[in-house]
Amino acid sequence: MTKLKRMLKREQIIAWGQIIGGCLIGALAYPWFLVPNHIAPGGLTGLATVLNYLFGLPVGTTSLVLNIPLFLVGYRSMGGMFAVRSLAATLLFSLFIDALPLPCLTQDPMLASVFGGALLGIGLGLILRAGATTGGTDMAARMVHKLIPHLTVGMILFAIDGIVVVLAGIYIHIEHALYAFISIFVSAQAINLVVDGLTTEKACYVITSATDQVRTQVMSELNRGVTLLSAKGGYSGEERPLLLCVVSAQEVARLKLIVRRADEKAFVFISDAHEVLGEGFRQLNAEE
To answer: Is this prediction's pTM over 0.85?
Structure first.
């Protein structure tokens, strides 16, 4: 087996492990926190939670039934591997929600919304990292976006989640709808944390008249690589190199000191750089 094949096989194993683990973790949020407290955190599973309250229908099975027509309509636009992984994730997620005979951990709706949202977000984040989705509103939003391109997928998702929460407010109680908004917010933060990672490196851009001095000192003092990009002043029209350097958050202060010592009139802007791979950071083929 070649090195590339071994790498691809390893990535497949990691991806399926993340899907299974994500489905299990996300599903725990429902029997432990969300369903007993009638919190519907948006999406088709949230709609299934409302139907569970009204008619006693099982949340997992109802969510799966609601997802089937969306998969039938949207699978062609998803791509082969993404479709297979998403279908598996949807089936496992729905199965785990109904199959886990777990007791409710709290009757406090605030605790339930926070911890339920966190568990759900961690689970969905792992599924997204594996290149899959649990179907539902993601596919619905993509289909609506194709019909109405000026509406972004994010806007459509927010609208769908809002409709589900409003239904929860109408048919369950307005307080439960408010708790659902808390759960959605916490879930979104947890998803971002899992997908982007705990560590955030910084991409630093520097325009200075002391280009060579700054470049040399960054490489010698911080032991970081520096890339020279061609840039032209919009007002002056002068050609001036732009320095690009990616450093850890702890190294930002040292980099600014290097620039300030070399040129107090330098122009610097710094942005977050998530998941930096390559020399000096995590290897490109490292396990996620």
So the answer is: no
